[in-house]
Amino acid sequence: MSHKKISQYIFLVLVFFLPLNIGKHYVVKDSYVYGLTVDYLIPVIYVQDLLVVLLLFFWFLELVKDKDSFRSIFFDKYGQVLFLFLFSLIFSIINSERKMASVTFFLRTFLYSLITFYVRYEVSTKKFIKNIVCVSFVSIFLLSVLGVMQLIKQGSVFNNYLYFGEQPYNKQTRGITSEYFFGSEFIPPYGLFRHPNTFSGYLTIFIVWFLMFLVLEVEFSNKKSKLIFKLSLYKNKYTGLYYLVLLLALVNLLITLSIVSYVCFILSLFLLFMSKGKKFVGLVYLLIVVTLIFSLSLPVFRKSALLSKYSSFYRRADLLVSNYRIIKDNALFGLGYGTSTSVIEDNKVIYTSVRFIQPVHNIFVLILSEAGVFSAGLFLCLIYLTLKACLRNNTLFLVPLFTLVFIGCFDHYLITMHQTHLLFWITLGLSLIHNPFYAYNTRDA
Questions:
Q1: Do the Cβ atoms of 97 and 41 come closer than 8 Å?
Q2: How far apart are alpha carbons 55 and 8 in whole angstroms?
Q3: What's the alpha-carbon Rg for the chain, to the nearest Å?
Q4: 3-state secondary structure 287-323
Q5: Residues 6+ apart with CB under 8 A from 119
Q6: Is the pTM above the cut of 0.70?
Q7: Are 13 and 47 in contact (CB under 8 A)?
């Protein structure tokens, strides 16, 4: 079996186990903040980390056979900016007072970002893409069933971390998230994630991808050299199963009661239906700019009568203010990649009896505060280059990219949680593929 074939099998396994939460935790001295263990500061080796290492190992064995191909893959404009971004993170590690946490975060980002190249250049045939879609559906189906069972049980199903990494919890668990629906209190499903919001964001990204691959038929016009999209139904012998999985995923998305995911999904759905319009690209850019400005301005609305009573809102606003203070003192190289939670309490805006130690709920501000202005600028360049690639290759892929940006503006898990961090880089890779739908509909092999 060739190295390329082995790497493809490993990638399919990786996609299937993407939501897995099993890892070896190493609680060290730097993992504590004022006597409290902080999850984000604990070095962990996850199953996905090992799969990524294996995947890259066999892929590199294939690439080294052709040095010209190796150089063309990793040293184009996108590759140069990505490696500059990774290099800039090293300075934040040097500046970090909790080097173990910073090194762990850096190594994971380094490994996961390389997956972007693999997806961009290897996920290009009809057969491989169909296999990825099928594997994703099975994974999401099992995850959705678990979510429904958690809702019914009002707690974890297996009640054992060793079973897929499910977080053991019930109504009596300290710090567990509870919501109210028409006056009734309930615990939303966690799936295999640390919080229902992460679960809902993960589902939102996948549902948007599914709708693109299963609902939007693409016709390729050689005369006009562009892609034309027509709404249709995806039809084969598994059609019923596909839509059953989508329904289950949507049910789980609804019962998480995540406002951010709701708004993100509605806007993404709106953009999908507007994708044939002449003003589609401008609309995407407008929504991205408005989302960025509004998310950065949350502290301005902190004392508004309408929003100040919602903890989800004022905590986001307070975390932003705290991180703006951190940025002011560590603008050049940041506080230390992956370590902002170590000083959040020292920069709290409002002191309460509740200890809320979390990263700022904005990935752009998070990178700026932890890694400095150079890293943040290069990260924005990566997003910009991906946007340009979408315009050049396939404008419809602006939709999942918008989904990432929107979620990233209101939560941190695309950077801080390993499942969604890996999904983030995989999505960037898919967005960079040249005419992927054309490959999906026409290529064999």
A1: no
A2: 8
A3: 21
A4: HHHHHHHHHHCHHHHCCCCCCCCCHHHHHHHHHHHHH
A5: 426, 429, 430, 432, 433
A6: yes
A7: no
> Containing domain of residue 208, as a range?
3-442
d(CA 439, CA 427): 17
For 299-313, b/e burial (b = at least 16 CB within 10 A) is beebeeeeeeeeeeb
Q: Which long-range contacts (CB under 8 A, 24 or more apart) does 180-187 make?
A: 181/257, 186/151, 186/154, 187/150, 187/151, 187/154, 187/155
Q: pLDDT digits over 366-415, tens only?
A: 999 999 999 999 999 999 999 998 888 777 889 999 999 999 999 999 99
> CB of 397 within 8 A of CB of 174?
no
The angle subtended at Cα 262 by Cα 172 and Cα 437, nearest 5°, is: 125
In the chain, the number of structural domains is 1
Helices (H), 355-397: 363-393
Residue pointed to by tokens 């975390």? 319
Asked if 82 and 113 count as a contact pair (C-beta separation under 8 A), the reply is yes
Angle formed by the axes of helices 47-63 and 3-16, nearest 10°? 160
